[in-house]
Amino acid sequence: MGTIDKILHLTLCVAVLSQSLSVAAADYDRYNVTMHILHTNDFHGRIEEIDKYGGVCSEENSKLGECFGGVSRIKTMIDKLKIKYHTLIFDAGNQYQGSLWTYHYGGEVLAKFINHLGYDYIALGVNEFDHGLDKLVPFVMNVRRTILSSNFDDNKTPGPWAMVRKSGPNLVDWDPIGVIGYTTALTSNISKPETIKFTDVVAAVQAEVDSLILEENITRIVAYGNQGFSDDVKMARALRGVDIIIGGHSNTFLYT
Which residues form a coiled coil (predicted)? Predict the structure, then answer.
């Protein structure tokens, strides 16, 4: 599979969502299995709808239908698409920062909204660490979704970090799908993960791919995480055995 095939192209962009809720299908003709993935990234605490500049939606603009996004719209679209498709739902990180919802209420409240949306897997983005580990702990403790980051090294840091896993299996039409998470290795330089370290993304993801293939006989593999589009393209060239890459962090809009 070539680089362009590996980098996920958005086959359906939902215009009403500023957070880029998208659906893509990976079709494996050999086994007659079709997988549909709904994914978001760089949500940045946009619990409420926003205007075209990313700011607070005024009552006037809301009445005129000139605002976008927000949890209500995302939930409505997820529920609509889940009726039509057998889906997996991902978030590629950067839930924190960007609104008073995360600044004031923090991770515990944010986790409640994430749980409500019904993600299967979420990634840890660089912004999740911007206020230190104490502010991230309530999110990790309260989110009832699988958190994945294959290059996450807690270095025996006290806290609930055992809840962050490298990968997770899933079944689509009873067919096993491997899911691997990752977080940019630059997190230590541009955020505040304190004693938590992040190893090389490509090496960590490839090691987990090899483990899924050799030890669990899983050959359909999705990698998703938070490091930016250009690094995802480089990673796609380097990896073996990954079918789809879903990325966040750089806020890159991909045209179909």
Answer: none
